[in-house]
Design a protein that fits this description.
10 helices, 255 residues, mainly alpha, single chain, 65% helix
Length: 255
């Protein structure tokens, strides 16, 4: 009678051992699957994601014209031209009316037919310019990194970076570079010392020309954006008077 419970215990232990071995086999199978090489999957746009120096998907990212197309677009030129005309007209009207141009009876900033659409276009174009500024900044930074790799961590604002790059150019002797007009004194010292000890090398004539041209485009984008903001702020008192009264024209124009 005592042998029956013993046989039952042995049977249970054998069953547990079998289960344990089966679990080990399952784990081994999972490891085999995990060790299999993962095949490259295409990116969301159907193009295989890979780093390349040359054209990718028909776009040559080494060319500024290929990655920054906003300034040369017909819509961009049309809106900026309309803004220039509107700002000139406002300035002329303000000069003719004097102090009365800003009083309660002033017509300066009145939104007539078509003017509201221009304000809408200005706000939309401002967003596109912000995006384009970042694209151009990446273009400049990627090329100028060979000359002054530390600069991108010292001057992080895209517009300031473009100004500094244009001033320094290919100059290796930082004592010859005048940065007073583009940077505060504290930053000038750091940039000058770092630039004097950098391991960077001068750019080729072709890369330098492309970089300086990109800087010019960057500064133009910034100047045009300031025009858009100036016009919208000047018209906000008439376009959204309540919002402007509460938040001020500058904040209201950004909303």
């Amino acid at each position: 009678d005592r042998s029956k419970p013993r046989r039952k215990d042995l049977t249970s232990m054998a069953t547990l051992a079998d289960s344990f071995l089966a679990d080990l086999d399952d784990l081994s199978d999972d490891d085999d699957v995990a060790d299999e090489p993962v095949k490259d999957e295409p990116a969301e746009d159907g193009v295989k994601a890979e780093a390349a120096e040359g054209p990718i998907g028909g776009v040559d990212f080494r060319s500024l014209d290929a990655v920054a197309k906003l300034v040369g677009g017909e819509r961009y030129r049309r809106v900026i031209s309309q803004v220039d005309d509107a700002l000139a007209a406002d300035a002329k009207k303000k000069e003719e009316e004097g102090d009365a141009s800003t009083g309660p009876g002033s017509t300066l900033g009145v939104v007539d037919e078509g003017a509201y659409q221009l304000i809408v276009d200005c706000n939309a174009l401002s967003v596109e310019i912000e995006n384009e500024i970042q694209v151009v900044h990446n273009f400049i930074r990627d090329r100028y990194r060979a000359k002054f790799p530390e600069l991108e961590s010292l001057v992080m604002h895209p517009i300031d970076y473009a100004r500094v790059v244009k001033v320094i150019g290919n100059e290796m002797d930082m004592t010859r570079v005048e940065l007073e007009s583009v940077l505060p004194n504290a930053t000038i010292m750091v940039v000058s010392v770092t630039g004097s000890t950098t391991n960077g090398q001068p750019l080729s004539a072709e890369d330098l020309e492309a970089t300086v041209r990109a800087c010019d485009v960057q500064l133009q984008l910034d100047a045009d954006k300031r025009k858009l903001v100036a016009l919208v702020e000047a018209r906000m008192d008439r376009t959204a008077p309540n919002l402007s009264a509460v938040l001020g024209p500058e904040v209201a124009s950004k909303l």
